[in-house]
Every structure is written in structure tokens, then in C-alpha cells.
Amino acid sequence: MRKQKVQSELFLVAEIPEAHDNPARVVGTVMAGYDGHRGWLYYLASTPELRGSGIGRGLVAEAERLLLEMGCPKVQLMVRRDNEAALDFSDQLGYERFDVANTGKRLISDEA
Questions:
Q1: Region of residue 43 (phi > 0: left; psi between -120 and 50: alpha; otherwise: beta)
Q2: What gap in Å lies between CA 61 and CA 95, rounded to an integer?
Q3: Fold of domain 2-92
Q4: pLDDT of residue 112
Q5: What are phi and psi of 92, to 5 degrees?
Q6: What pTM value is reported for the model?
Q7: Which of 12, 28, 40, 103 could bridge to 55 as Cys pair (CB 3.0-4.6 Å)?
């Protein structure tokens, strides 16, 4: 995974630890970055059956803490325009919606 080579401390994973006969399992993730101007949060997710339990909030709070520690003055959370549940969640966290268009260009293919 590319993120492990660049600011790997900003790739956060929430897990439920192993207990009894149940193995540990990943229940949430967020990937953050800081470019010296602003921080970014990408790929915030939690397992559907545990949504509303604070996993997403905890991941965002920890990512924000780490970014602030790096001197990051502002942060933006990338959410797909049609993902109303995620947009509503970001509203609850105090994130402001912007009317901007993102463009992108792939430099390296993910195909093997």
C-alpha cells in the first residue's frame, strides 16, 4: 500500500481486539495527509453495523489531533457528492460544504 510509504502515521485503523474465540477485526479506517497548506481526510469508513457507535468520530478526532500536531491550520474531508449519509456525518462534525469541482489525473495505474 502506497500510504505506508508516505506519512504512514496518518493512516488510522480502528479495530475490535481479539476476544475469546473471536479474532480481531477492522471496523473503521481513515487516511489523512498534510501538504503544508491544509490537511485532507480520505476514505473515512466504518463497518455498517457499527455506524453511530462513535468509530468515525473517533477516527476523525485522532486524525485532526495528529494534523494539528504537525501544525496543520485547516482540514478538509473528501466526500463523494452523492454520499448523503457521509455528507450529513461531516455536517455533524462541523465541516463546511464547499461548492467546488475536483479534477484528477492518474499517474500510476493500480492494475497489476
A1: left
A2: 12
A3: Aminopeptidase (3.40.630)
A4: 57
A5: -65, -30
A6: 0.86
A7: 28
Residue type, 112: A
Beta bridge partners of 26: 15
Domain definitions of the chain by residue range = 2-92
**Phi/psi of residue 11, each to 5°?**
-105, 110
Q: Strands of 25-34's sheet, edge to edge?
A: 11-16, 25-34, 39-46, 75-77
Report the chain's terminal Cα–Cα distance, integer Å. Answer: 13
Distance CA 13, CA 5 (A): 16
Give per-residue pLDDT as tens, 36-66: 999 999 999 999 999 999 999 999 999 999 9
58: amino acid identity, one letter: G
- How do the residues of the chain divide into helix, strand and coil, expressed in percent and rounded to 5? 30, 25, 45
Cell of 51: 455506524
Tell whether the torsion through CA atoms of 9, 4, 90 and 51 is positive or negative: negative
| Residue 76 near residue 41, CB atoms below 8 Å | yes
